[in-house]
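Structure tokens please, single chain.
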Amino acid sequence: MLDALALTPSAYAIPTLVMSLALLLLGTLVLVRERVSLVSVSFLALSLAVATWLFAFSCVYSAQDAATALWWTKGAYLGVPFIAPAAFQFTAAALHKLRVYTRAIVLSWACAALFAIVATTTDTLITGVHKYWWGYYPRYEWLGTVFMAFFFTVLIASMGCFAVEYRRANPGTHKHRVRLFIVAFGIGYLGCVDFVAAYGVPLYPFGYAPLSGFLIVVAWTVWRHHLVDITPAFAARQIIATMRDALLVLDPDGIVRVANRAAVEMFGRRSHELIGQPVTAALGDPLFARQLAAISSTGTVATNAGYELTYRPRQGSEKTVSLSVEVMRGKRDVPVAMVCIAHDVTQRKRAEEEVRRLNLDLERRVAERTTELQRLNDQLAAEVIERKRAHDTLHRLAVVDELTGLHNRREMNRLLEDEMHRYQRYGRPTALILLDIDHFKAVNDTYGHQTGDEVLKWIAHLLRSNVRATDRPARYGGEELAIIMPETLAKDAFEVAEDLRNAIASQPFVSVASTGRVLQIPVTVSLGVAGYSAAITTREALIAAADDALYRAKRTGRNRTAAHTAPLLPQQSVWHLGTVD
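Here you go.
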């Protein structure tokens, strides 16, 4: 069974034990001196959290075995996680910003409580203890990194609040007190060096030394400047007298009971002309006075101006007044007084009106400019479209044969050059088919050049319909067409050429003469096939080889397909020379 009191006095436990007792004493003295104010209560909470940490670690250093040390370590985390939120709450209270940071404070306390529960009930945060020369010390698990991030984020936020307040504060007691708090907390934060040993670094936890400096500075600050400033309740008359806004306090009968210096100046009256007088007679503006009287009697504003009223004095120009009203009620919810604070917003309203006028003028100019820019943009867009259309037309004229719609000779040469480079670099095959229309001159002489052109377009259509999407049909010149076939051996291209030859020969070209007579013109083609090889490695050589094959096909009777050389063919008798079936 674990014996939590299995402790042996240790010299290393004495500084932390003394410091924990000193913190408790300081927290109690501050609570008494500040008459249990919110700031003193927050400081006591911070003192308790730090004292719990230091007292428990004194026991850890004195533990006789690891189990006892681990028990006290987990006990310390009933205080350690709450140090950061307690410091943040103290900061907010000292700066009078508890309402501003309420959600952040509650969230930090909730996170601290969660870490405390995890640390004391599981091994997720503290997995064991290290044994160092000064005694045992906690060993953090993976959640330790998350805890450290939370801990230092809150502490940094607390110091940041002090820093912001210090920059904003006017010279005086409050600014000096904030500066001392920054020094005190800055010294105290050095105590976070004690976390280093939790990660296996044998650095002696001397955090009690910075905490002693923290004690000295805080004690001096409390005894010299107290923790809080004087509240408005301590100096109500001076505050009312120095208010820049007009203050009127009316009784239930509408009699002015309090009027400050700003009210005297705003309404153009002497003090005795306001105090003790009915508000309807004192202000000199019946409408404005009736509205205040209605507020005094009913607690509501009898106007649609939304608490912005127009005051028209007997002398001088009218003013726009922003009115803030607070109804003070007694027993049975009966109004006993009406506190009215009036702020002259005339200049602001004029500025707003001028800004509104300038905005309207700016909007008009922006609209005109936008319209003009839109017109220019539309004009530019139309010009871009037209230029693109012209560019596309020029590009088409540069690469496409106008009659057949196939690639022209220039584009054919470029494509063959590309395929040549691919063959030379990667050894990828490419075949070329050259096609010549048989007796094409006779077609032109018999039926006319227009019909000859139609024959060319018809054959071009058959070429596009009978080749792959990757093949490139082109017009080589005159009645000669070509097909570039990437990734194709010459023998495979020969079969394609034969299929194309048969397709053309099997159907006549049909045309309608100018007389209305239907013409059926038989058309045949001769084809030559060649491909890049060890003997044919350039574009010029490939064209010459295909042309040579084409010449042999025409010489041997036309309506034939011929390949360039027999050594490239597995069976010359089958495909070297094709004839019509």
